[in-house]
Amino acid sequence: MHATMSAEEDLADVKRVLAGEAQAFEGVVRRWQGPLVNMAWRYCRDRGRAEEMAQEAFLRAWRGLAGWRRESSFSTWLFALAANVFRSELQRFPAVNVPLEDAAEPAGPATQLEGLARKQSDDAVRRAVLALPHRYREPVVLYYFHEMDVASASRTMGLPEGTVKARLARGREMLRKRFPQLSEERTPLLGSSLGPEKEVMQ
Amino acid sequence: MKSNLNLKTHDGAIDQILASEEQLIPTSGFLAATMERVREEAACPKPIPFPWLRALPGIVVGVAVLGWCGFELVRVVLSNAHEISLAQVHVTGANWSALEPAGWVAAALAVSLLSWLFARRLAGRTGLL
Q: Domain ends where: A75, A96, A117?
């Protein structure tokens, strides 16, 4: 999704904004509102707050547009800026979450409607990510937001890939321990994508 | 999102759950609300930058005067160093009474500094800074 965003359009809009045409920023917001709201959602899992945080990120981007040095792509710059905004917003007002050990137990397969049970189970795991210690939470959030791409996650966090991999492995280890029953419940699907996944597990 | 994940391992199950999250669609008013705030910011006059160019001569003069004072102080101390001995340093009661106001001033400065640091810390927590 992100890769298909038009870098040329971003560049053109940024040039127009820097030339004094504030309205040109609308193109940037239009293209990136979905990714930024979804990224914020993964940080807080509160829809209203996610939009507020995404809006704040856009405003910071607007103010700091001249600071984009074009050494990296616009999306890399924007995601890194947004991650900083979300991080500091959540430091000021932490997302309501529970300790990892108190995270809701995934519903078992015996629950009456299997589809609902699966959804509840998945939601429990997703919410448990917010209960991870901060240093492990953000790599997990960004790794999956960036479609399991360690390099993108590390660029967004401004950390070396090795550090992100190590924290990601630790975060997933904590989730694995919290939800040991997941492997028994899931049935393998055909096909696999072992690119970045394989890289992380090594 | 990648959906064909290897689910043979436990990590695969976690990957499947975390990577297959449904995409949120921003509310219809999000774009308009964001652009409204951008336009508000754009309409505000830019903050007046500090006039470094005008202030530069004053800064240079200030630094020069301070440097000259420091140099003179060191020169005077060094030239009189042979005349100063520890035996001469004794503080009489009259000296102490002269120093007392200075102590209060120092205490007041210290309290001011502490309260400024405390206020700054509080403001930082609430995002005012």
A: A96
Q: Which of A171, A182, A137, A161 has the alpha carbon at shortest distance from B5?
A: A182
CB proximity under 8 Å: A 44-83 to B? 47, 50-51, 54-55, 58-59, 62-63
pTM of the model: 0.64
| Lookup: tokens for B106 | 């120092």
A residues 99..118 contacting B (CB < 8 A): none
- A180 with A197, same domain: the answer is yes
Give me the domain span that covers residue A129: 97-202
Read off the DSSP letter of residue B83: G
Q: What's the domain count of chain A? A: 2
Same domain membership, residue A197 and residue A111: yes
Q: How many CB pairs under 8 A join A and B?
A: 117
Note whether A27 and A13 are within 8 A (CB).
Answer: yes
> Are residue A8 and residue A83 in the same domain, yes or no?
yes
Give pLDDT tens digits for A63-122: 999 989 888 899 999 999 999 999 999 888 777 666 666 666 655 555 556 677 777 878
B14 to A179: CB separation less than 8 angstroms, yes or no: yes
Q: Tens digit of pLDDT for each residue in B94-116?
A: 666 767 788 888 999 999 999 99
Q: Taken in order B30, B36, B40, B41, is the CA torsion positive or negative?
A: positive
Q: Which of A64, A96, A128 corresponds to the end of one domain?
A: A96
